Amino acid sequence: MKVGIVGAGMSGLACAEALAAQGHTLTLLDKGRGAGGRMSVRRMATPLGEAAFDHGAQYFTIRDPQFQARAAGWIAAGCVAPWPAAGPDAYVGTPGMNAPVRQMAAAFPVQWGARVTRLSREGETWRLDVENADAVEVDAVVVALPAEQAADLTGPIAPDMSAQAAATRTQPCWTVMAAFAERLPTPTDSWRGADGEPLGWAARNVSKPGRTGPESWVLQGGPDWSREVLEWTPEDVTSVLLAALATRIGADLPPPVAQGAHRWRYARSGAEGSGALWDPELRLGLCGDWLIGPRVEAAWLSGTILADRVSGQ
């Protein structure tokens, strides 16, 4: 079949790899500017050179046997490595978290900057309307988006699927990125905050394997706090989380040489439990971490499960 995949993050690309191996022809569309999604990397110019920040997912685990087999290829290629600071089973992309996604995407002619605005059927053919571009016609559709976005896109054409997605809420997250001219006075490279605290996670990004550049930190707000202050300005969020970092370290911070904030409206997924959703009559499927749990590994597994269902395996 000709299959259109909406979303070229980890789950969409995992589905694409498996479908391509089964002989299907693929069209991948993603509204982003490049590979990464919630594994993306933000770069900032500083007087000390470029600073890079993994401002979405911080690391991932490799536990499922199928995922272990796929990750072995990334490790052999040098685009994934352990990061002991986050735990004995923590891995990161190298030189950035988006490295494995970039490797996967390179195998396909992904249309970046392609936001799909509407799905419709014309007989046995699916039509995908794309903002500021020509529509795409395919035999089947895979929607590999966060639950809320999947619910919006599929609502008019598959209300039952849409309702399942809409019932699986995603937690938001404010992320602050800061680079400094000197190493902060703490030997700890990562830690989690206590429930209810503004600072849910802090990491010395430059401590991850393959990173270069100045002292760089990623600070992520806890889910409850991020939800409460979701509409705050980036400046206010930055002030609070930098102050929380200083408190945690027990010392005043030097002035950052670069800083920024990013609001992830859809950060930590829910756990719907189906693995993937596939309607063989409509030839419409949904995949994503929200169908299993909030992990990079879950996103890959969901995409792979959906590909098997598409092919009736």
Report what the structure shows.
This protein has 313 residues and is an alpha+beta fold. The chain contains 8 helices and 18 strands. Strands 7-2-1-11-18-17 form a 6-stranded mixed β-sheet, sandwiched between helices. The protein has a 5-stranded antiparallel β-sheet with strand order 13-14-15-12-16. Strand 5 and strand 6 form a beta hairpin. The longest helix is centred in the last third of the chain and has 16 residues. The protein is globular. It starts with a strand and ends with a helix.
Which terms would index this structure?
five-stranded antiparallel beta sheet, six-stranded mixed beta sheet, Polyamine Oxidase, Chain A, domain 2, 2 domains, 8 helices
- Give the strand content: 25-35%
Overall structural domain count: 2
Percent of residues in helices comes to 25-40%
Number of strands: 18
- The CATH C-level name of the largest domain is Alpha Beta
Chain-wise SSE layout:
Elements (H helix, E strand, L loop, with lengths): L1 E5 L3 H12 L3 E6 L10 E4 L6 E4 L10 H13 L2 E3 L8 E3 L5 H7 L5 E2 L3 E7 L2 E6 L5 E3 L1 E4 L3 H8 L4 H8 L4 E10 L9 E3 L6 E6 L10 E7 L1 H6 L5 H16 L8 E11 L8 E3 L4 E3 L9 H15 L3
Parallel strand pairs: 1-2, 1-11, 2-7, 11-18
Antiparallel strand pairs: 3-4, 5-6, 8-9, 9-10, 12-15, 12-16, 13-14, 14-15, 17-18
Helix pairs in contact: 1-8, 4-5
